[in-house]
Amino acid sequence: MPTKLEGLTLVSPNLEYKNGFLSFYRDFVEHDPANADYYSAANRDFIGYVQGLLDESQSMNLKPNYVPCNHFWLIDSSGIVYGAIRVRHNLDSMFLQNEGGHIGYDIRPSSRKRGFGTYMLKLGLFEARNLGIDQVMITADEDNNASRKVIENNGGQFEKNVKCLEEDQVVARYWISL
């Protein structure tokens, strides 16, 4: 683990980081299998996975109800991937307006509770500002106190709890002014 979070950087998905990203995925398989499937396509076809992420940033080949989205990986100088963050360009779907928000992120399970999430979201907010977003909506599961703390540490102002549209779950909705 790096001694200073400032030594970490956000990078766009790139074939150069295949080993680091697949290690990130395997960490989910081992320590958080319920959420590993989100990254399983990278394990099957890494080249296609990366191209799909890059396409999303250019509004190309979007799945139904998806919006343009820039993906970034939080890495250290050796290429270890500690996190993945998604910055959506707009909230032009019911899901995003209700519970998805502009930003979603994950920290590799074995590296949680060490400040990576707070630092990665800070960097992600700069990326959102670069896209011209001035008010970011971001959510966390109502009972995910660690994620809520990450959001609050980055200036998140709690709006309200909302029921998810298709799941029996509640998320806490926050706004961050950039």
UniProtKB/TrEMBL annotation:
PROSITE patterns: GNAT. Residues 36-177 form the N-acetyltransferase domain. Pfam families: Acetyltransf_3. PANTHER family: ACETYLTRANSFERASE (PTHR39173:SF1). This is N-acetyltransferase domain-containing protein.
